[in-house]
């Protein structure tokens, strides 16, 4: 069966309301071509992406900063609370804070590298990459559920009979962003340990660009399984379990250091110090505490670079295995 079926296309259209008519038409053509030409043995990778949202630009002559929130850091309904928190930072800082919305972690890292951003909420994997490539620095990290770690959940439909990751061979699988730690790196590492790759193991692959979309894809039968951020699955399961209630956690990964807040190395030291103090003290302020509660964050804390070594080790191991195969 072709990995992209008509019902999958209908789901894509419903989930991507910002896609313009031309893009929808193009997706329709691609769908028809896929259905017409697929063979059972073919491996297809489908990438689901939205049009890039508009970013508020700096106002000439106004002192301001730009802070990005990666689209996968929170479910869609949680974005409002991150906006509220940035408004809180703005009030404490005394200068305009512009919210920058990007779903693509690679693009956020490029914006940080090129100094188009002053800070960002990013995933653990992109932080490790940015630290190695252009000395990206940690500002703070959220503490949630009393800890600064999170997990990759491999999820399946609630009534799916499979009982282990090893039973997912030949299934349809959803990753999130290619740079996501829990949504891509961890399951890829699990496969590498089995001497497999996503292409060799799964029947088809999609990149949803968001953990909540991956959860919904499993719940609605668009895919058979997915790798998702434990924090987001737990957030939705507590606040809006419409789709988590239709899924089941098949496997839970070892713990990894939580997605941090980062800044460019050459950010003004005084601004960096002020930002850090605002983040670290927000929980002690009633206004800040109220917003953090909505974000399901206990507080922001200092975290050290070495906490992300396990992420680096996974990346290095996968690269080493790939190099051996290429020899």
Task: Give structural notes.
- This protein is of the alpha/beta class.
- It folds into three domains: 1-42, no CATH class; 44-51 and 154-256, Periplasmic binding protein-like II (D-Maltodextrin-Binding Protein, domain 2), CATH 3.40.190.10; 64-148 and 257-317, D-Maltodextrin-Binding Protein, domain 2 (3-Layer(aba) Sandwich), CATH 3.40.190.
- It is 43% helix and 19% strand.
- It contains twelve helices and 14 strands.
- The strands form three sheets. A six-stranded mixed beta sheet has the order 1-9-8-10-7-11. It has a six-stranded mixed beta sheet with strand order 3-2-4-13-5-14.
- α3 links the parallel β2 and β3.
- It is globular, with a radius of gyration of 20 Å.
Let me know the average pLDDT: 85
Q: Which stretches are low in confidence, meaning pLDDT under 50 for 5 or more residues running?
A: 1-61
Proportion of beta-strand residues? 15-25%
State the helix count: 12
Give the name of the CATH architecture of the largest domain. 3-Layer(aba) Sandwich
What class would the helix/strand composition place it in?
Answer: alpha/beta
CATH topology type of the largest domain: D-Maltodextrin-Binding Protein, domain 2
In one word, what is the shape? globular
Order of helices and strands: HHEEHEHEHEEEEHHEHEHEEEHHEH
Please give the number of β-strands.
14
Helix content: 40-55%
Largest sheet: 6 strands, mixed
Overall number of domains: 3
């Amino acid at each position: 069966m072709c990995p992209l079926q008509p019902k999958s296309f209908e789901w894509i259209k419903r989930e991507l309301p910002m896609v313009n008519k031309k893009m929808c038409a193009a997706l329709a053509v691609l769908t028809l071509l896929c259905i017409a030409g697929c063979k059972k043995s073919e491996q297809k990778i489908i990438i689901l992406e939205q049009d890039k949202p508009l970013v508020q630009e700096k106002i000439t002559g106004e002192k301001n900063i730009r802070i990005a929130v990666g689209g996968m850091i929170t479910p869609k309904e949680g974005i409002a609370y991150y906006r509220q928190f940035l408004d809180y930072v703005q009030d404490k800082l005394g200068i305009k804070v512009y919210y920058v919305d990007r779903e693509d972690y690679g693009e956020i890292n490029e914006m940080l590298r090129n100094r188009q951003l002053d800070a960002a909420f990013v995933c653990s994997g992109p932080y490790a990459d940015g630290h190695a490539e252009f000395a990206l620095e940690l500002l703070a990290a959220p503490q949630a559920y009393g800890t600064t770690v999170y997990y990759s959940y491999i999820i399946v439909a609630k009534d799916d009979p499979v009982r282990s990751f090893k039973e997912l061979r030949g299934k349809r699988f959803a990753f999130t962003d290619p740079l996501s730690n829990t949504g891509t790196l961890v399951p890829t590492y699990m496969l590498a340990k089995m001497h497999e790759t996503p292409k060799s193991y799964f029947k088809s692959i999609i990149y949803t660009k968001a953990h909540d979309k991956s959860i919904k894809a499993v719940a609605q039968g668009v895919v058979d399984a997915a790798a998702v951020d434990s924090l987001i699955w737990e957030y939705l399961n507590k606040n809006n379990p419409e789709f988590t209630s239709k899924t089941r956690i098949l496997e839970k990964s070892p713990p990894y250091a939580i997605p941090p807040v980062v800044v460019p190395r050459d950010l003004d030291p005084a601004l960096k110090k002020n930002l850090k103090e605002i983040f670290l003290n927000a929980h002690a302020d009633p206004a800040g505490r109220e917003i953090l509660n909505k974000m399901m964050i206990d507080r922001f804390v200092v975290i050290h670079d070495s906490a992300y070594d396990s992420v680096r080790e996974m990346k290095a191991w996968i690269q080493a295995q790939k190099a051996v195969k290429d020899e």
